[in-house]
Amino acid sequence: MTNYPPEPFRIKAVEPIRRISRSEREAAIKQAHYNVFSLSSEDVYIDLMTDSGTGAMSDQQWAALMAGDEAYAGSRSFLRLKAVIEQIFGFAHFVPTHQGRAAENILCAVRVQPAHVIPNNAHFDTTQGNILARGGRPVDLPAAEAADPASDFPFKGDMDTQALEVLIGEVGAKAIPFGMMTITNNAGGGQPVSMANLQAVSEILHKHNVPLIIDACRFAENAYFIQQREAGWSDKGLPEIARAMFALADGATMSAKKDGLVNIGGFLAMNDDELFRDVGNELILREGFLTYGGLAGRDLDAMAVGLQEALQSDYQEYRTGQVAYLADRVRQAGIPMIEPPGGHAIYIDAGQFLPQIPRDEFPGLSVVAELFVQGGIRTCELGSIAFAHPDLETGQMIYPPFELVRLALPRRVYTQAHLDYVGDTLAGIARYADSLRGFRITYQPKLMRHFTAHFEPV
Ligand SMILES: Cc1ncc(COP(=O)(O)O)c(C=O)c1O
Predict the structure, then answer these.
(1) What is the average pLDDT across 55-74?
(2) 157 with 215: CB under 8 angstroms?
(3) Ligand 1 pocket list (CB less than 6 A)
(4) 200: number of CA atoms within 13 Å, CB side?
(5) How far is the CA of 224 from the centre of ligand 1 (A)?
(6) pLDDT number for residue 171
(7) 356: how many CB neighbours lie within 10 A of its CB?
(8) Selection from 321, 317, 326 nearest residue 417 by Cα
(9) Mean pLDDT across the chain, nearest whole number?
(10) Atom 8 of ligand 1: nearest residue by CA position
(11) Distance 345 CA to ligand 1 centre (A)
(12) Residue 41: which residues within 8 A CB-CB, separation 6 or more?
């Protein structure tokens, strides 16, 4: 049994939450067309929909907000963030963006053209969406170990480097404007990427003159896993490991709503001067001036502090320990999930949990809906609703490897009792899981359908 790690902080402000009745929850989810993105957060008791922008800021971050310099150009806040980004990431240039997908959009706008191919260990939905929106083809190349949810391989976020070589051979390096690595690999179960794999991918891409861009959302959690699990890194500090990861890349997209420990913010970093010029022009058109990029000066200051806090060892020990504790509760309930648990979430394997529901009736949504009705717990489907999409050339549906439900833990927000409540609710659902039914789509948009699609029970 995993011990619950004592929090390396105490609580200075509280936010009340309430649990509405079961009949109110049934009415609320029906009214939301069974899409939990349409629920009012007031009706949610424990919100595990995402770890993105939902964390609690520290007193130091709140204090930093007051120091924000709201000058349009060249603010002190920008310079403070610049110093931190240079220190942690080491890239020559960066622009702030309002969140991760804005960084992806700008990168794709200036570098992705129709028929371009972008390899990744696994694209997250926004990355996939931004590449598709420019006519590009996102290709996921997860390591073979990721195919077995029960395997306890320590770096299931790795890329299949052989598959990368084959892809480059097939489409030609000229068709690949950049390759990506997502650390940790959110779509693949929040699994970390090893330094050795990052190095191998970097070498292959660079041999073909293809730049490597890291999707760095959870870089600090990834650095912690490298320290804990990879030979040769246990005596290195997290900042040193982070620096070594980014030294292998040519740039990074960042949603600071994760390991920047802020509620909003992100950036796009790079070494190439020409790319920086193109990015800057696009940024000014879409986001804002080079030194604020769609954010307030105070947001830049909170991000500068948060990026450093995310690299503190006691924080990471608590953070990953909390995920491991919830994983233990899920295991005890006999519910299949991606093993070993990753850095920010538990991923229930709904396809295996509810074998009576076919993929096109979305077993993941069935788990998501039941967790809300039963316990007021909001989670997120990361299976066919989020990721299945038609192939650009053949029109055939490409399905993700698993029908997952993500229970993401907001940073520094919930306590042991909250996690026990989630574990108890899951254990209750496991007892009648074979009676759960699937769903059909009644409305869907063309891209990123999971945010706004409507459903009804089959
Ligand atoms: C791996 C990954 N990349 C990109 C993003 C997009 O970031 P944002 O939500 O800030 O646009 C996310 C958000 O969840 C993510 O998990």
Answers:
(1) 98
(2) no
(3) 52, 99-101, 124, 126-127, 182, 186, 215, 217, 255, 257, 266
(4) 15
(5) 19
(6) 97
(7) 13
(8) 326
(9) 96
(10) 100
(11) 14
(12) 47
* Both structure tokens of 201: 């991918």
Summarize the confidence of residues 244-248 as an average pLDDT.
Answer: 98
| Single-letter code of the amino acid located at 33 | H
- Cα distances from 247 to residues 206, 211, 234, 389, in angstroms, run 13, 12, 19, 34
Distance CA(303)–CA(64), nearest Å, equals: 9
Band of the pLDDT at 142, cuts 50, 70, 90? Answer: very high
Residue type, 412: R
> What pLDDT digit, counting tens, does each position of 39-60 carry?
999 999 999 999 999 999 999 9
Between CA 223 and CA 184 the distance in angstroms is 9
Question: Would you state the pLDDT for residue 357?
Answer: 97
Compute the CA torsion angle 147, 148, 153, 159 (nearest 10 deg).
0
Length of the chain as a residue count: 458
Instruction: Give tens-digit pLDDT for 427-445.
Output: 999 999 999 999 999 999 8
* pLDDT, tens only, 151-161: 989 999 999 99
Omega before 184 within 30 of 0, i.e. cis: yes
Q: Is the peptide bond before 142 cis (omega within 30 degrees of 0)?
A: no
Query: Which structure tokens are listed for 19?
Result: 């649990």
pLDDT at 209: 98
Pairing of strands 377-378, 345-349: unpaired
The count of other CB atoms within 10 Å of the CB of residue 84 is 18
